[in-house]
Design brief:
Length: about 160
Amino acid sequence: MAEDKDNAEAILSVVHKKIGDAFDVFDHEFNKTVDVREIGTIIRSLGCFPSEAELHDIIAEVEEEEPMGYIRFEKFLPAMTLVLMERKFRPIPEDLLLQAFEVLDQHKKGHLEPEELTKYMTQEGEPFTLEEMEEMLSAALDPDKNVIFYKDFVGMMAIEDT
């Protein structure tokens, strides 16, 4: 039994270090606080991909009673530890991403036009901003053909689940 407890404590220690390291990158004042606008980036850097609504819920949970525009590490750590230990907000598997693009590719061409993808991504579901779309297209667009070869793009987007 002591071995299980030691193992659990070791895992927890690693998780806490991972969260602390990610948080510290954005703690520019070195006072264990970060700008609330950086929380999404920190969470995504830890391999979690909540929707905007889920992100707002997390922020509401870790914000001070009187929101001051920053998040304290001591409030962020337990909430994020729970998220990581419960393996919440995992990335979408590569095969599901590919299926989503294939649904959009109604003529089975193997690629999408940037205008098509922009229309889908800014008007359906949880819409992307134009800035997010530009960022996505800068990575997704084939510079020679000016189309998105989505099999290649999905391969770039997919991350290994650890």
